[in-house]
Specification:
single chain; Lipocalin; 14 strands
């Protein structure tokens, strides 16, 4: 920086060394303050990504309930549809959140007579199983994700069901914005006693098989 003294131009730092020191110190201070802020902002964007709403109209959860016991051949397996009420998914961080309204879960069982299917529906929602009036929601919130080869992911998280929260790990695949896979859980882990009839000669297995096919709103637009 040039300043005028006695009618001549001089370098400010040659006239006053303190001026030069202040200039360098100010520049150093700006770098020290702004660089970390910029770095944190960049890393924050890369880490969190952007959560996208789950397309609840085109996503589904299917629960398969199997039978066991001496006379299990005379009983029926069941298929239950669990519609996702709401949720979001961040493809960058792997963060997943979703909820299911237990009161909207539906027994499919196309081979059953309508009256018997209704009985199964009422029993499922009643106090013996889901107790949907007391526990109207099932929620899942991820705590970590591991990306593996060929689109395979392992998502760890907390599942809350029937008033109990447990850690679970889910294996799935990601392709064109769709997340598919299946996992198992035990009813007893969530304080649900599997239904048993006829003195235990026919009963529902403790293990439930859950299949999922989830897409985001952005994924649905791209299909």
């Amino acid at each position: 920086m040039m300043i005028q003294a006695n009618g001549e131009l001089h370098d400010a730092m040659s006239i006053d060394p303190l001026f030069g020191f202040l200039k360098e110190a100010t520049g150093f201070l700006i770098v020290r303050v702004l660089f970390p802020i910029a770095l944190i902002s960049f890393l924050g964007i890369r880490a969190t990504g952007q959560a996208t709403s789950i397309d609840t109209a085109h996503s589904k959860l299917l629960i398969r309930v199997s039978k066991s016991g001496v006379f299990s051949g005379f009983a029926d397996n069941h298929e239950v549809e669990a519609q996702i009420a709401q949720g979001s998914l961040d493809a960058t961080s792997g963060e997943v959140r979703l909820s299911v309204d237990t009161r909207q879960m539906k027994v499919l069982d196309p081979k059953l007579r309508a009256d018997k299917r209704q009985q199964v529906q009422e029993r499922m929602l009643g106090p013996e199983v889901l107790d949907s009036s007391r526990f109207p929601s099932i929620t899942f919130e991820s705590t970590g994700v591991e990306h593996r080869q060929e689109g395979t992911v392992i998502v760890e998280g907390r599942l809350s069901l029937h008033g109990v929260t447990k850690p679970i790990a889910i294996r799935g695949r990601v392709e064109n914005g769709r997340y598919t896979g299946k996992f198992e859980l035990k009813q007893r882990d969530f304080d649900i006693t599997p239904i048993s009839i006829a003195g235990g000669t026919v009963k529902v297995k403790d293990e439930l098989a859950i299949e999922f096919d989830i897409t985001t709103l952005s994924g649905a637009k791209g299909n």
